[in-house]
Amino acid sequence: MDEDEIKFYEQAGKIAAKAIAYGVDIIHEDMPVLELCEKVEDFIRRSGARPAFPCNVSINEVAAHYTARPSDTLSIPKGSLVKLDVGVHINGYIADTAVTISFSKNLSRLCEAARKALEHAISEIRPNVPLSKIGAIIENTIKSYGFKPISNLTGHKISQWNLHAGKSIPNVYSLEERGIILEGEVYAIEPFATNGNGYVVEGDYVTIFRYAGGKIRGKKERLLMRFIWKHYKSLPFCKRWLLKDFPEFRNLAEVFHKLVRRGNIYGYPVLIERRGSFVAQYEHTVIVLKDGPLVITVE
Ligand code: MN
Ligand code: MN
User: Fold this and answer.
1) 190 annotated active-site
2) β-pairing, 265-273 with 62-64?
3) 142-166 per-residue burial string, b: 16 or more CB within 10 A, e: under 16
4) Domain segments of the chain: what residues?
5) 156 catalytic per annotation
6) What is the CATH code of the structural domain delimited by 208-270?
7) What is the mean pLDDT of the chain?
8) For the chain, where are the E strands, in sequence order?
9) CA dist 154 to 14, 40, 132, 166, Å?
10) Of 65, 156, 273, 284, which one is the catalytic site residue?
11) Catalytic pick from 85, 185, 221, 273?
């Protein structure tokens, strides 16, 4: 990786960290989730970067992939556990970071378990380390607190314009061959801890989408797909963004859903802990340098 690339990653990382800090500062019980998402995303744009995906605000048993819908009426519940997950990109160089905000004293140890797991995992990142070893560290740390890691969610390699660039970092030890960490790679590491049974299932609703491509039939369909590719490429987006960026979208809701049904647009289902238990998550993005990790998602 050359110095310019590292600079872009570092700039994106710094803005992502500041956006998280801003979100943590303004969030409060009863706050509309729509307001939180829009303020955090506006903060990113005002900082001279772009959101790499819609601001994720996943509450209690919802582990990931929830962003406010255009007229969302959901508010932050009293005593809840909120995962705030933010992505920033500059020229397609992505930083991905998350924290958990607890409005309940009883859940602070669960947060601590995920936070420590991330800290321990980062300290072991260097070239030639097997990815399965990082999974073991995450699992052992979370279990030492008496909780379970979520085994079917993983961290992921990042490359330019690609949020999930192949390799993944498991949150548990697995015998499965995961490959090794190489110098110059970028990873988002994201341990999830739960007081449930450690497994997420797909909910029956979708708030976040991504361009998938394939053969596109219909004039309006092609118009919409062209817009999405031009503005978001293959990065995740949401309907709130389309309504703002593309006024004609107001009349294209049917067309949009047709594209989702046909698989031209991929929808990320909301991910929910199987037993309905609480989930905490922390995440940083690191560049693997010769001597160890460079954490980019810091202020
Ligand atoms: Mn994330
Ligand atoms: Mn991630």
Assistant:
1) yes
2) antiparallel
3) bbebebbbbbebbbbbbeebbbbbe
4) 3-202+271-295, 208-270
5) yes
6) 1.10.10.10
7) 96
8) 50-59, 62-64, 81-90, 93-102, 148-149, 154-158, 168-170, 186-189, 192-194, 200-211, 265-273, 279-281, 284-289, 292-295
9) 23, 24, 11, 11
10) 156
11) 85
pLDDT, one tens digit per residue, over 121-178 is 999 999 999 999 999 999 999 999 999 999 999 999 999 999 998 899 999 998 778 8
Residues within 5 A (CB) of ion ligand 2? 96, 188
Distance 129 CA to ligand 1 centre (A): 23
- Annotated catalytic residue, options 190, 221, 273, 284: 190
**185 is annotated as an active-site residue:** no
- Model confidence over 83-125: pLDDT tens digits? 999 999 999 999 999 999 999 999 999 999 999 999 999 999 9
Q: What is the pTM of this model?
A: 0.96
Which ligand is closest to the CA of 97, given by its number? 1
Across the beta sheet with 192-194, what order do the strands follow? 148-149, 192-194, 279-281
Please give the distance, rounded to the nearest whole angstrom, from the Cα atom of residue 213 to the centre of ligand 1.
23
* Among candidate residues 72, 59, 61, 66, the one with its CA nearest the CA of residue 29: 59
According to CATH, the topology of domain 3-202+271-295 is Creatine Amidinohydrolase (3.90.230)
* Best CA proximity match to 156, nearest among 286, 15, 293: 286
120 catalytically annotated: no
How many other β-carbons are positioned within 10 Å of the β-carbon of residue 104?
A: 13
What pLDDT band is residue 3 in, cutting at 50, 70 and 90? very high
